[in-house]
Recover the amino acids of this structure.
């Protein structure tokens, strides 16, 4: 039997919250202001691979850019737009320490993940990583890209 089951999960979470406040891990007002509602993201470096003839083949990636909009961290939702006139796609948000993960399940069931880290104070940009896990005619295709997002 765990401490949580003996004492109740509410008590355990209360201890975790108090410990976070004592250690200064709570979100301050200035940090909350750094959570933008809209981001413009650009990825110019990375690697793409396809599975062909029994082996993974490396290919140079094409630059990517898209907007992450209507970010609501409390509801853990956002939208993604690949072009200004494109229909927005639905994103789920998973919050992490010093980052937010934006998950997209595309029509075919494949998964795209964009992780946006806290703003780099020197550059004013948010370092980001974008990963695509897909396939074409039954063959795996994936890519991982690095870049930055900025406040819209």
């Amino acid at each position: 039997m765990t401490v949580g089951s003996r004492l109740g999960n509410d008590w355990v979470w209360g201890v975790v919250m108090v410990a976070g406040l004592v250690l200064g891990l709570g979100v301050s007002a200035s940090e909350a202001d750094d959570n933008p509602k809209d981001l413009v993201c650009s990825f110019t470096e990375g690697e793409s691979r396809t599975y062909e003839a029994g082996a993974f083949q490396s290919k140079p990636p094409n630059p990517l850019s898209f907007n992450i909009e209507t970010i609501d961290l409390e509801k853990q939702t956002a939208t993604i737009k690949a072009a200004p006139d494109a229909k927005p796609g639905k994103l789920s948000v998973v919050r992490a320490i010093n980052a937010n993960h934006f998950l997209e399940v595309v029509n075919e069931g494949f998964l795209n993940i964009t992780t946006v880290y806290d703003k780099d104070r020197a550059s004013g940009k948010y370092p980001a990583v974008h990963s695509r896990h897909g396939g074409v005619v039954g063959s795996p295709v994936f890519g991982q890209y690095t870049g930055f997002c900025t406040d819209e």
Observations:
- The longest strand covers residues 39-52.
- Residues 1-28 form one domain.
- DSSP finds three helices and nine strands in the chain.
- Confidence is low (pLDDT under 50) at residues 1-33.
